[in-house]
Amino acid sequence: MARSKIFGFQSRDDVERVARTVRKSEAGQVIDTSRRRAGGGTGDVYRILFGKADAAITKANSGTISIYSGTTSTLSDTGDNVTAYTRFADVASGKWVAVLECPWGYELIAAEC
Fold it and tell me: Helix H segments across 3-113?
């Protein structure tokens, strides 16, 4: 069986890096969200932000996300907001999300069920 192409990532390494970040978040570990260069110092910068949807967002639309920061046990709203696009699913109001900062804007890449 042929493997399907993974869209939205440049390589399998990118997928694994995002998966490690999500696992760390779920395990309650602190995640460094400072800017880094993908690929060990080369390539474009893609920062992951964590926040909550300010209102319900339907698939294929954009909505406002309140950005949170701090340690896992002391996350708080920074007062910063971004408008992010969701390609994959509807997101309910108040749910946690992971947002990828891209050259063209912000994309929701994960959401609390």
Answer: 12-26, 38-41
